[in-house]
Structures are given as C-alpha cells and as structure tokens.
Amino acid sequence: MTAARATAVTVRQLTAGEAALVPGLWRSAWGARAELYPLEERAWRDRLAAHHDPTLLLGAFAGDELVGVTHGRTPTASWLPAGVGWVSLLAVAGPWQGRGVGGRLLAELFARLRERGARTYRLGSDANHLLPGPPQESSPALWRLARRAGARFLATEHDLHVDLRLEPPAAPLPPGWRVRDDDPAAALEFVTRAFPGRWTAEVGAYLAAGATVLTLQRDGEARADGFCAVFTGDEAVLGPSLHWRRALMADVADRPGGMGPLGVSESARGSGLGLALVRAGAVWLASRGATDAVINWTTLTPFYGKLGARVWRTYQRVEGPL
C-alpha cells in the first residue's frame, strides 16, 4: 500500500449500527490466532453498556469498509483516577495491518482524550474492562506503536485456569468460620467497608446481574470478613473471568465458570481463610456443573497455585504520557 492510500483512510466516530461490527473486526485483527481471544458479541455489548462515551469509539474507513477501530474511556466515576485516559480496544483488520491505520486511530483517540483532560493513557485496565493490558500474544506492531507513544511497560498480570474435574487440594476452614452463598447484602456491605471504590461498584453490578457472591463469616455473626464472586455464565452480564470462555471451551472446558474479584479483611488474613474461600468457590462452581474455572487479572500465581491453578493468559500493563 502506498503512503497516499494510507492517508486516504478516514477516521470518525462509529454509528450504533457500525459498533456491532467490532467483534468481527477483532477476529480479523487476530487472524489465525483469533481462537486465543474470541470476542463474543455479548461481551462487546456489555462494554457499551457502562462507562461508555460514544464519541470515543472510533473507526477507520477505506471507503465504506471498516478497517480499524479503537475504543477509549475517561473517568466516569469518583473512584477512577483523574487525568487518565484508557485505550480499551485497538484493532486493525488483517489485510490493513502495517499500513499506519493503528497509528492514525491512536492519534485521533489521544487527541480526544487530551481534550477531556487526560494527561496519561493506559492500554486496558479501564472500568468495565475487556483486558487488563495487551495480551502477550499481541503483534510486534502493537508493542512498537506503544513505544512510539512513550509507553512504559509495567507488571504482568495473569488469568489462571483451574481444572474442576479434579478434587481441589485440601484447604479447610479454621474452626468457627463458614462460607455462605445466600447473603448478598453481607457481601456488598463487606466490599464497601473493606474495598471501597472499584470493587464496590463492580460487585454491586454483578449482584444486580444475578451473580452469586460467596461470603466468609464467623459462626453466629452477620457481618462478612471475605467475599468471592462466582460466575456460571448464565448471569445477565458476562463476568470478566469469562470474557474468553470460548477459547477455554475449544481447549479443555465443557462448561467454564469464573471466579473473582475476591478478598478477605486484613484481620482475617494469615490463617488460611483466603485459600479456604477460593476452594469453596471452586467447589461451588463444580457443584453447578462447571468443569473448569478461570480466575482473572491477578499476580498471585503462587497463592492460587496451591489449589492447582495454572497460568492460562498473560497481559502486560502499559501506560504512557499524553
């Protein structure tokens, strides 16, 4: 492709109808490796249902053909950091890669993020995120594009896989504790108290969508000291641990389930309660027919590894100046 043809690509906001084309474009962008991150139409619709500014969903067009897309976000809640703009998604159709389309899209999105007061950008990790960061399997062109934009490459994050066909290793609850699956009010109260901000908002949304949140409680007490969100895939919103469930189903899973976020209070840490809570989540999912589970976006691989969890997907946190 000549430089003249590259400059002929038009970048503009997508219409609502054109937004529906994004999952197909995403598959084209991944090409032969599309099975690694198969974006479901359902998951994409969820991305447009919260923290979404239509003016930050941009497409690159060659005539009437959509050949690239990027999706940006700015803070829409008080718990999100001010001055940050997120690149939630960037994809260029396979035949158009290496022709400057991604750079054109990113430049236009960065300009719009700066207009809204952003001083720093992050690739992924946004509210209602699709990805915590670019997958390690991303093309070299994406990493070069990020470097040209002044990117700093930070910690790696992982999605973990647990085979639920096998009995998980023992992780008994200490005496005087129990795990419940029927006290959503206690779950939300605990998260609000112990993890105010993002997790409070997300857990509230998951509960509203029909998800189950397990609670860790002392015998005879109503107050919770730990929580674990679990997803079967039948909820009104697809849990973040199930974004790439079709890849897992094509690989090993008959019926995947998901876990996370989860956490315990500071006063309850160090006595095995956290591991017991994770095991309870795995048992809960298996009892409802799940053959496999994904724990998403974590660095705690040694902790979860005690229950047989392995690294399944890896992402790189990326940020840079605007």
Provide an overview of this structure:
The protein has 322 residues and is an alpha+beta fold. It folds into two domains: 3-150, Gcn5-related N-acetyltransferase (GNAT) (Aminopeptidase, 3-Layer(aba) Sandwich); 160-314, Gcn5-related N-acetyltransferase (GNAT) (Aminopeptidase, 3-Layer(aba) Sandwich). It contains eleven helices and twelve strands. The chain has a twelve-stranded mixed β-sheet, sandwiched between helices. β2 and β3 form a beta hairpin. It is globular and about 70 Å long. The model has no long low-confidence stretch (mean pLDDT 95).
Report the β-strand fraction as a percent range. Answer: 25-35%
CATH class of the largest domain: Alpha Beta
Largest sheet: 12 strands, mixed
- Total of domains: 2
Give the CATH superfamily of the largest domain. Gcn5-related N-acetyltransferase (GNAT)
* Uncertain residue segments: none
Taking all Cα atoms into account, the compactness measure Rg is 21 Å
- DSSP summary: helix tally: 11
Number of strands: 12
CATH architecture of the largest domain, by name, is: 3-Layer(aba) Sandwich
Return the string of H and E elements. Answer: HEHHHEEEHEHEEHHEEHEHEHE
CATH topology-level fold name of the largest domain:
Aminopeptidase
- Sheet with the most strands: spatial strand order: 1-2-3-4-5-12-6-11-10-9-8-7
List descriptors.
alpha+beta; 12 strands; 322 residues; 11 helices
Lay out the secondary structure.
Elements: H1 3-7, E1 10-13, H2 16-19, H3 22-30, H4 41-47, E2 57-62, E3 65-73, E4 84-92, H5 101-115, E5 120-123, H6 140-148, E6 152-163, E7 177-180, H7 184-194, H8 198-208, E8 212-218, E9 224-231, H9 245-251, E10 256-264, H10 273-287, E11 292-298, H11 301-305, E12 310-321
Parallel strand pairs: 4-5, 10-11
Antiparallel strand pairs: 1-2, 2-3, 3-4, 5-12, 6-11, 6-12, 7-8, 8-9, 9-10
Helix pairs in contact: 7-8
